[in-house]
Structures are given as structure tokens and as C-alpha cells.
Amino acid sequence: MFRVIKRLLLLIVILALAGTAVVYGVLTLSLPALDGKGQSSHVSNNVKISRDLLGQAVINANNRNDAAYGLGYAHGQDRFFQMDLLRRNAAGELSELFGKVALGLDKKMRFHQLRKRSRAILQTLTKADKQLLTSYAQGVNEGLAQVGYASFEYLLTGGVQKPWQSEDSLLVIFSMYLDLQSATFERDQALIQIEQAYGQKMVEFLTQPSQYQAALDGSKLTPFTDDIPTLPAQAQHPVKNIQANEERGSNNWAVTGAHTQTGAAMLSDDMHLSMAVPVIWYRAQLNYTQNTKEFQITGVSLPGAPAIVVGSNNKIAWGFTNGYIDTADWIALNDESKTWQVNEPIALPNDEVENYPLTLSEYGPVKYINKKPYALSWAAHQPYAVNMELVKLEQSNTVDDALAIASSVGIPVQNLMVVDNKGSAAWKHMGGIPARKTPSELSVNTKQYSTLFEQNENERPFVKNPQNGRLWTGNSRVVSAIDNSRFGNGGYALGARSSQIRDRLFEKQTFAESDFYALQLDNQARFLMPWHTLVLNQLKKDKSKNKQYISELENWQQCACASSVGYTLVKRYRSALINTVFASMENKLNEQSGTLKYVKRDLEPAIWQLINTRPDSWVNPEYKSWDEQLSGAFNQTVTALRAEYGDNLQNWQWGKVNALNIEHPFAKQIPILAKFLNMPIAPGFGDSYMPAVQGKSFGASQRFIAQPGHLENAIMTVPGGQSGHPLSEFYRAGFSDYVEGKHTPLLPQTLIHQIIIESAQ
């Protein structure tokens, strides 16, 4: 019997090893060749595609179109599935890959009809821009064809790799609109529902300006001075976690040459996005000739598009943060408003099709909010939303050159921060901005709608070389209080992060790259210090009962540090108290398919006003008084932490509670693949409301620091590898530098692979 069991176990081991060998064999077939020669009729001269020790693609070409081909070739080899997901997500075409489970998401995206808009915009582009997109698409498809075998994602889904088209690159840019601006109209919808349920004064109370304001001119918005609105009598409701919407945003700042040893201005930029495997950005350097001039542009590209998004040409360096000005309005329709219905066919596997009925109007697609029709007018729906003007940054020589093109670039509106090698630094809004003059966070009626919405705004504020030599943005209001009434609030960040960056910049007079990197990693918990005082004072009312918690809070290190239990307690307490105080409002909105999610970060000044004045109507019916409510929120915090992490307080350390876990989307669905596909889990470092932004799968998607003219010291650190293939030598390359805070060079290092594509013309 023992021999039989032994033989069976041996057979199982052999079969497992054989199965593993087969899997690795199949995966190996889909690895791209990174060395060799090929031919193409789509390039005018030879194109060289090299890769360095990190897998950074270095493209050498004789003109910009051939450089686009080379970048597309590298993207097609390393990132095609990621690109496919981006275009399908924006177009609402994921169901064709994943089946009916993706129908809900596809319908949400089809509301915007972005495939049709991409096709229409493509026809309006200049001949040069069309050729640029064509060259890029040809490179993508030939790079993909070189691989020969479909990647494992297509083997698992049974999906088909469809050729890349020029319009798909526009869809990829639209995908960034969805990621960066959809919270703007979602927030407006929440405010409309709050106004309908509680009145205009409640909206003003919940969205009042905070003390954290960091506009470049130092201006302050008028504070809320009215009485606190009375909350209607509350029934007892379960306290739900109001999940705050992640700030798709970023930090950037700059100093003029007066504050560097070189005399060149210096830029820092770290863009905050959801992080997955592969990471969204792709490191690249483009080397080409245009009008007899040689250009070299180094930075990160977005797979699917032929441009360097953030980087430097050694004359200027540029970076972005999300603008969060108001680019969308809900138009309240009436009985006289003309609407019509179209069917959006959504393809499913096996040639099935589901028709999605979409109601349209002259103002935009129509959605029912509390059973009333509203049309969405959004910058992304306009002809100026997307174009190829961003490429012009590559050939800019000065800050003034960059400022001159900012108004014409078709991307989601961003805070452009740009510096040059002469010492100048500037900020300006870049991207599509509706020209209508009176933005609204609530709905407007059809008579208030302005057709100027359909035009791009050319007149925009900017700041160049301020007297103090410092510029900063962090997704909060940047414009003056006067300009704020013109450009509106599209969901600004609270301002705590921007304020901390501003204050840090005034702590020194001269900066080097290492100083900027230290500021990117600044995780001091300045924002939570009042909350720390509140909860500690609350617990000291019963010192014997709360002894262990008091000890952790008194030693919390005042930072989002990996070993801090106290930070976890303060952060979770703040959230629990907000959830408790606003429980009845959240439940009421939920009944109307609404939520406070998109306004939760606005609530900071309101919650402190409530804590300080303690109005009876704002006591949750579960408690008899504000003291009970304040204590009860801490009890909820402890109960939740015990349920998640056990009774041992050391398991509540912030580094464990907020551990960085960057996952492949397939590993989430098939956990057995996690070890094979995911990045290693790293201790949590940083949080929201501080420069070092980090969540479990959210944070700085790159860290970039540069002085044009001195790029030998420039930094570009990315939380993941270049390749989307798990067997590639570049799958995890660079990740350890990111989590360890190392200064990964921007410029390519030793080149170890080279492909030459010869012209067959």
C-alpha cells in the first residue's frame, strides 16, 4: 500500500513538473525578440530600437514619423494587452473579451460614445498628425506580429488580438479623461442630490473652503459664515464606510534657476494613479531629426500613444498634475427638450450582441437623477478634447514655447509645470477647457446653457518666474480667488498636500535633485495632527481602559511610517467619525443611487465645525450625545481593526495595514497566479493628504526630477517593469529602486539589446 501511495505521489509530482514545463514553454513562445534585424515598408529610413538594463526603449530614427513607428514597435512588443484594455475600456468593448461580467462597465462607458468621437476627431486632424498616428499604429502591429504568439492573457480569455488603428490612440487619451475627470461630474451629481434632499445651504456647508488653501497668489476663498444647517430627524441607520474617491492627481513643483547651483530651473513631478501590473507608464527615449535639427526626448510614454507624456528634451522639462477645474455641467431637461434614442451594440464572445439603448439630447447624453432627466455636457464630448498637439512640447526650447501651445493641446486639463535650462519656471493650464464663463457645481437649466461649452478656452491664467522663485500644485486650487469663479471647482483636492509642499519649499534657499526627492517622500502627518489631539484627549478620559492605545498614540511618530500603530488609529478614527456623523445622509443618498463618496474629501471643514459646536441634530441616533458619538467612533475603529488584523496591535502597523500590493488584473481573479504575476508586497509608506501619497494599489506612478541641461543627475523612478510578459527580464526591473527610494537615472544606461528595422521602400 505504501509503495502504491509513493508511486502515485511521484506521478503527481512528475505531472505537475510536466505541466509547469508546458506552461513555461507556451509562455516562452510569446516572448518578444529584442535583438536582430527586420524590414518594413512603413519606415523611410532605418529605425533602431535599443533597450538598456531596465528595458527602457531607446529609439533612433531619421524623422518623427519613423520615431513614432519605433515607439509603437516597442509598445506592441512589450505592452499590447495593456493597450488593448485601455482602448476597449474607453470604447465600452471589454465584454467581447470578458463576457457578460463586463456589461455593466461597458454600458457606463458607452454613455460617452468615445469610439464614435475618436473616429470623428481623427478625420479633423492635420495630414501630419494623421501620418504620425498611422506610423505609430504600423509600428504597433509589426512589433506585435514579430512576437508571433498571443500573450497568456488572450489564451486565458480566448480573445483575439485585433490590429491597432489610429483611432485607438485617441481612445487611449480618452481613457485618461475617464480616469482623471469622471469624478467631476459624479461629484456634481452628488451635490444635485444633496440639494434636492437637504437644500442649497447644506451644499454650501458641506463644500465650504478649508483652511488648507495653497493658490499660487496666496488668495483665500470667502469662508462659510452661516449657521450650521439642521439635519432632519434621523432614523437609526447602519454606519457604512463612505469610501472616499481616490484623487487621480499628482504633485509637481519647481524652482527657478536662482534656487539651484547650476542656474537651470528644476522640476519635480509625481503623478498619482491606480497602480497595476504592468505599471501604466513606459520609459522611452526618442532620438530623431526634424527640419535639420536633432532632438532627444527622454521620459515616460503612455502605451497606445506616440508621445512622451512627461520628460525632458534637455532644453525644457515638463510634468503634470490633474487640473480639477470644472469641465462638466448637468443640464436639467424639461418637457420641451428634444431627446432621441440610439442603440449601442455591445459585442459578446461567440458573436453574441447586446443592444444598449442610449438617450441623447442636443446638450449631451441623458441620465436620470432622482427620476428626472439631465444631459451631461463635458469637455471630453467636444471636438477639442483630443489631438496630437502634446507632441509639440518635444521641440520646445523655452518655457515661453511651452506656454504658447498649452491652450491648444487636446488632453484632460492639467496643471502644466515647465522649466528650462535658462532658469525660467512656469505654470499654466494645459488641455481642453470649455469656453463657457459660468461653471456650476449644481445643474443648470436649458436657458442657462451656453454654446461656448462647445469651444475651447484660449485665455488662461499662468504664472512665470514668480518673485519668490517657487511654484507648486497638488490638485487643489491653483488659480486666484477671482479666476476661481471663472474656472470653477471640479473636485479640487483639499489643499493639505499642496500646503505642505509649499511650506517645505520655503524651508530652503537652494535645492538639488536629492532635496526634491526627499520632498516627494515626505510623509509627515501634518494634516492629521488635530485629529491626533482629538482622539488622544478623548481616550485620556479613561486612562486605565485605554492605556495601550494611548501609548501607541503618544509614540505615533507624527508620520505615515511603516512601524506606526498610532498613525493607523488616527487615520481610521477620522474615517469612522465621518462615517458616523454622515450616516443618515449617506443612507438617504443610497436610496436614490447616490453617495457621499465624491464629496467626502470636501467634508473636513464641515466635520470640524460640527465637532467644535456639537449641534444636537448631528448626533447619530445610536448615541445620546456628542461625547458618546466621539467615543463610539473609536470603539468602531478598534472593532474593525481587530476583525481585519487580529488582537495583536503590532499587526495594526501602518506598513501592514497600508502595504503596497501592485497586482496584475488576472491575479485578482485567479489568486493562484498572484506570486507569479504580482509585484512583491512592500511595507506601506505614505498616505493621502501628504506629499508621499500611497495606498494599497495607488500612489506615485512615477517620480521625476530634472534640471534641463543637467540631465546626468535627473531621476525617473517607476513602480514596475517595462514588459508585461512575466518571463521577461524586464517584468519587475526598477520596482525595488522605487520601494527603496533610490535615484533611478532618467537617462538610459548601458544598452544591452538592439533591433534594427531596415526600410523596404
UniProtKB/TrEMBL annotation:
Molecular function terms from GO: hydrolase activity, acting on carbon-nitrogen (but not peptide) bonds, in linear amides; metal ion binding
Co-factor binding comment: Binds 1 Ca(2+) ion per dimer.
Keyword set, alphabetical order: Calcium, Hydrolase, Metal-binding, Zymogen
Active site (UniProt): 250 (nucleophile)
GO biological process: antibiotic biosynthetic process
UniProt similarity note: Belongs to the peptidase S45 family.
Name of the protein in its database record: Peptidase
